[in-house]
Design brief:
single chain, about 300 residues, Rossmann fold, six-stranded parallel sheet, 12 strands, about 40% helix, about 15% strand, globular, binds NADPH dihydro-nicotinamide-adenine-dinucleotide phosphate
């Protein structure tokens, strides 16, 4: 099997380089050109040419425009990377009769209510980033290519920056922290996403009828405030010195951002677990593992 991976150095892309390697020949690109292959999603012609040159059996797209607040003022760029480029991939995958693996987000939903979103629920994004990601999903479906779209949320990876590391840094610097408590979602490790992706690629090749949209998040739910409290408590329990004495819950309204965020980002993973015969671990186990790596314990 020949796999072409875009966005190899992002959180998910980094872990995919590991999890996809045993499946076959892996050609992994970042936004720069390698051996004449262009991995820059903003150059649609070069992107098309790269896929035509490689002729992969599977295209995995881990590249994305992810700057949620900036997307409010850069909606054309967000649309180019998250929708138009994805549409080009989908067209090429369709003509190769290959498979496209793509990632989307809880931000396609409005955030209303408090029940977990199902794949069949209507999307209604609150911000430009969410709208561009939804347009990418729609381009894939419209192309008629064989695909797996995994909607995930609150992604973290040991490598690079993430919310947990930011909270740990602030907890060492400040006595009090104010953290949003009315947005509920699930921290999901890039490792988990990458491992499930590898499993799903094998399975969808054997059972093409499994193609479609899936929610892929760890089990459980938490607010940003609960997540921060967990991370800081864990660090204190393993002996890390923290200056913080109070972690205060605040509402989203007290922390205005350029882009509106959904309050309810819960997503049901029942379809994924049943169709792919998987059991998704709770979010704490992945976060704790990441923290042990961060603290080198
Ligand atoms: P990252 O931001 O870690 O990685 C995105 C990658 O895309 C980066 O390596 C970036 O490269 C690359 N990229 C950006 N623009 C271009 C371009 N024009 N051409 C080529 N590559 C480009 O994202 P994640 O790994 O966290 O996200 C993976 C997927 O999951 C995405 O589809 C995202 O929308 C989705 N998702 C992520 C969430 C999160 O919390 N992070 C939540 C929900 C969904 P460079 O470093 O050079 O800019």
């Amino acid at each position: 099997m020949k796999i072409l991976l875009f966005g190899k150095n992002g959180q998910v892309g980094w872990e995919l380089q590991r999890s996809l390697a045993p499946l076959g020949e892996l050609i992994a690109l970042d936004r720069h050109s390698v051996n004449g292959l262009c991995g820059d999603l903003s150059d649609l012609d070069a992107l098309r040419a790269a896929i035509r040159q490689v002729k992969p059996d599977v295209v995995v797209n881990a590249a994305a425009y992810n700057a949620v607040d900036k997307a409010e003022s850069e909606s054309e760029l967000a649309d180019l990377i998250n929708a138009q480029a994805v549409g080009v991939m989908a067209e090429e995958v369709r003509s190769l009769d290959a498979v496209l693996i793509h990632y989307s987000t809880d931000y396609v939903f409005s955030g209303r209510g408090d029940t977990p979103w199902r794949e069949s629920d209507g999307a209604s994004p609150l911000n430009q980033y969410g709208a561009s990601k939804l347009a990418g999903e729609q381009a894939i479906v419209a192309s008629g290519c064989k695909h797996l779209i995994f909607r995930t949320s609150w992604v973290y990876c040991t490598r690079g920056n993430n919310f947990a590391k930011t909270m740990l840094r602030l907890a060492k610097e400040r006595e009090t922290l104010n953290v949003i408590a009315d947005q509920i979602g699930v921290p999901t490790g890039a490792e988990l996403i990458a491992d499930v992706t590898a499993h799903a690629i094998v399975k969808v090749n054997q059972h093409p009828e499994l193609a479609g949209v899936y929610h892929l998040v760890a089990a459980g739910e938490v607010s940003w405030h609960g997540y921060a409290s967990h991370v800081i408590g864990f660090a204190q329990n393993i002996g890390e010195q923290m200056r913080v004495t109070g972690i205060h819950p605040i509402d989203s309204a007290a922390y205005p951002t350029a882009a509106r965020r959904p309050l309810n980002s819960r997503m049901s993973t029942q379809k994924l677990q049943e169709n792919f015969n998987l059991r998704l671990p709770d979010w704490q186990s992945g976060v704790n593992r990441m923290l042990m790596e961060v603290f080198n314990k």
